[in-house]
Specification:
This protein is an alpha+beta fold. Helix content is 37%, strand content 18%. The protein is built from nine helices and 15 strands. The protein has helices at residues 4-25, 38-71, 89-116, 239-250, 258-264, 283-288, 299-307, 349-368, 393-402, and strands spanning 139-146, 149-154, 159-162, 164-168, 173-179, 184-188, 192-197, 203-207, 213-219, 231-237, 255-256, 274-276, 278-279, 319-320, 342-343. The strands form four sheets. Strands 8-5-1-2-3-12 form a six-stranded mixed β-sheet. Helix 2 packs antiparallel against helix 3. The radius of gyration is 34 Å and the shape is elongated. Residues 4-10, 328-338, 387-391 and 398-404 have low confidence and may be disordered.
Length: 404
């Protein structure tokens, strides 16, 4: 046990530490508990209701622990001593009925919240008092998680931004999300819960911001070296402010086409916000289909071919070497090794003719090639095939030397 003097010294130190911690924490903003978006507010309410329901059983249990310890302490001679007591119907009813009712309530709240706050479900209310009317048109935002930055495309306005997002107040936002390489997580605590962005897939999130201001967004899923720098500003603006923000983007000298996207998609850290005044209207579909590179076949085309039985052996030659590699590998030493490539498109006449010429060349080479050896395959660990034919002395010697 520590000397009495130590406690005398530690008490003021502990008190000062608590005061300093409270002072430091007073500058923190509890965004999750004080959001500016209707969806995030409903998620906050769901969290509060769940905690209160759980506290209905936790607080009485903690209080009873203290009460029992006090009532049945060794010095209390008035406490009733019943060493053979083992059952009480009333206590059993309370012990089982109270948690069961709380679990039923939690299940009902969770079930309704899961469906009402489904990120794929379009909004039916701007806030608690205003429903979404037919004339309210959501703003479309296409989100691409890059390494390590965020790309936002506004197809309605034909502009795009990097690490900067804006939306008008009280207007529903319809996010469509994907990723260029690895799975990531898009999260603006003041707006709505996080939603994953995955390569080759398209996820959705519906939200609305109800108060003007500047809010923080970031990646909530570790994705590599530059993960800590995947932060961006989200501006909640009035209609006039949002139009001015769009006009600033339209005044940029940068254009976002497939080649500039491939350059942007290269891994980079702590990228400053930038704007693009024009966007290739087919870029989003190419990013989702993983066919931004020139000549590369999209995933939807592959799935269509697979549904029809594929292209057979002729499809083996339907490949091209990569003309651009966002992961900084040279074209001749791509991931598959020397000469590797990707499946090319078959929708243009030039590529179809080239593929046909390649198949014809392969057929001619196969006709001129010498016939294959009919000798059985011999490899490490494979027993030698024994036939009824008499082996030549040379074959017997080779089998004896190799062990097969």
């Amino acid at each position: 046990m520590a000397p009495r003097g130590e406690f005398t010294v530690l008490r003021p130190i502990a008190f000062i530490s608590l005061c300093l911690a409270g002072l430091l924490l007073s500058g923190c903003q509890a965004v999750v508990m004080d959001p500016a978006g209707h969806v995030a507010a409903q998620q906050r309410d769901l969290l509060v209701v769940s905690v209160v329901l759980m506290l209905l059983i936790i607080i009485p249990v903690m209080a009873l622990i203290v009460w029992f310890a006090w009532k049945y302490r060794a010095s209390n001679k008035d406490a009733k001593y019943e060493p053979d007591w083992d059952h009480s119907t009333h206590l059993e009813l309370v012990i089982w009925a109270a948690p069961l009712l709380i679990i039923i309530c939690l299940g009902a709240v969770t079930w309704t919240g899961t469906h009402l706050l489904d990120p794929y479900r379009p909004l039916d209310r701007i806030n608690h008092n205003r429903p979404v009317t037919a004339e309210v048109r959501p703003i479309e935002v296409q989100v691409v998680a890059l390494d390590w930055k965020w790309l936002f495309i506004y197809p309605e306005y034909g502009v795009a931004t990097v690490n900067e997002l804006a939306a008008p107040v009280d207007r529903p936002i319809r996010f469509t999300l994907t990723s260029s390489s690895v799975m990531n997580s898009f999260y603006i605590p003041a707006l709505a819960g996080q939603i994953y962005a995955m390569p080759g897939m398209e996820s959705k999130l519906h939200a609305v911001i109800n108060a003007p201001g500047e809010y923080r967004g970031f990646s909530a899923n570790y994705s590599g070296d530059g993960f800590s720098g995947m932060k961006f500003n989200f501006h909640g603006l009035d209609e006039a402010g949002f139009e001015a923000w769009i006009n600033r983007a339209r005044g940029s000298s940068l254009k976002l086409d497939r080649l500039s996207y491939l350059d942007l998609a290269r891994p980079s850290e702590h990228v400053a916000p930038m704007q693009f005044s024009a966007v290739d209207p087919l870029l989003w579909d190419a990013v989702v289909g993983r066919c931004v590179e020139p000549g590369k076949m999209c995933m939807s085309e592959m799935e269509s071919l697979n549904a029809k039985g594929g292209t057979g052996l002729q499809g083996i030659r339907n490949t091209l070497p990569p003309s651009s590699d966002i992961y900084t590998r040279s074209n001749s030493t791509a991931l598959g090794g020397e000469g590797s490539g990707y499946v090319m498109q078959v929708c243009t006449v030039e590529e179809a003719n080239e593929a046909a010429a390649g198949r014809a060349r392969l057929a001619r080479e196969s006709l001129l090639a010498p016939p294959r050896s009919l000798e059985p395959l011999r490899g490490a660990g494979l027993p030698r095939h024994r036939s009824n034919t008499t082996e030549t002395p040379a074959v017997q010697t080779a089998a004896r030397d190799t062990g097969f």
